[in-house]
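Re: the 495-residue chain
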Amino acid sequence: MGAQILWAIVCGFLGGVFVRSFFAFGWWTIGFLIFCAGVIVVTAYVARTKKEYAIVAAIAICAIAAGSARMHVAVFEGDPALDVWVGEKVVIEGTVVDEPDARENNIRIPVRVSLVASTTIEREVSVLVVAPLHTQVAYGDRVTAKGELRLPEAFETGTGHAFNYPAYLAKDRIGYVLSFAAVQKTGEAHRNPLKAGAIWIKQKYLEGLGMALSEPEAGLAGGITAGDKRGLGGDLSETFRIVGLIHIVVLSGYNIMVVIGFIERVFGWTKLWVRSVLGVCVAIFFALITGLASSSVRAASMAVIATAGKTSGRTYLASRALGVVALLMVLWNPFVLAFDPGFQLSIIATLGLIFISPLFATRLTWITERFQLREIAAATLGTQAAVLPLILYQSGSLSIYSLPANLLALIVVPYAMLLSFIAGVIGTFAGPIAPIIGFPAYILLWYITAVAKFFAWLPFSSVSIPAFPVTWLFIAYAALFCIFAFFQKKTAKPW
């Protein structure tokens, strides 16, 4: 019954947050849900029916109410002092609260506003400042910015669906955009030392990769080892997306577990708790250097739980760990559930890896286990099957050659990560000999890039699917769940 209660809490809470994200209702409705839960429990005890089912149902309803309440209190509101300047040019003062995001044509700087036109801002609200690419600011800097203040707007994605950009920004407490801004640094504010240190190390490491490797291999190395895909460039990023390899450029659980596995082998002579502490520190560090992106936080959290379970000798069930991590992440920031594509893809891909990949593994006996080919094939098929409906809904793009591309590329990814890490670290101080140190990594990174380019070059590498309503998305996942449940009965494995 413990598992039933856990899933009642997780699914109920997430369901409540999801529904409240799209339908506005208040405390009366939330209170009514709690009242219904109480009625169910009282009725079950009076009628002397199976109380276990009533308790689980009541817990699920209370979890729905809790999720709805969490989203209700998180609804983001702007500030009246900023609202009056929407559509006008204005000067704001504030603090850079995260690492600036450098794009091809501009740099996007999240600034927590303290003053607008000499008026103090009372609420905690941020503005996304879009400035020229040469703007030199960093996390923790105090800045003034002058530009046109506007509200973010939803936009057409090209697939027939509108992307809710305001809600996407709201997850970071950003309610406004300052376009065509001129930014000037005025000082430094208090920095989170852990975050500032992680960003500094990441920047130095990426500089080391730049010394040891040429582009685009340096950008790919930064992606697979530090979750930084900005150096990859728009064209190559699109190539990886077309062939279904973009997931290796995002710091995922796979990448983090490769690093933790390497640490365990290197420090195999130490005690288990020492290796575990090192593994936990690595997972947390990687989450920090990605700016606490949803996919890396999810991956790092599950890696920490897995490491803790191994250390304590307790059974680790990835599905329950994923449920707990998803609940905690949504509890912390409820906007990520419905409005963060990275969080959605990360959670669903992990579900596919946990539940669907084993179904393929038992039926791919004709694929050799050498070089982990069978494991890679099963993992690719499982994750692709899980995320396919969502990807088709979001982008309308179907990767035809995803399986062979992943089979050929993922074989060398662990070695490419290790050699890239060595190249980045040594490259920071190796000077002219850095390219020699980075040459082994360059060969493997070039190979991965060549695989992506080859399959993207083939005819029909990506097929466009017409836009379809969200109803079909839910139908597809309902069908996928029914198929899984059918096979799950045969294996009788615990969730």
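The mean pLDDT is 82.
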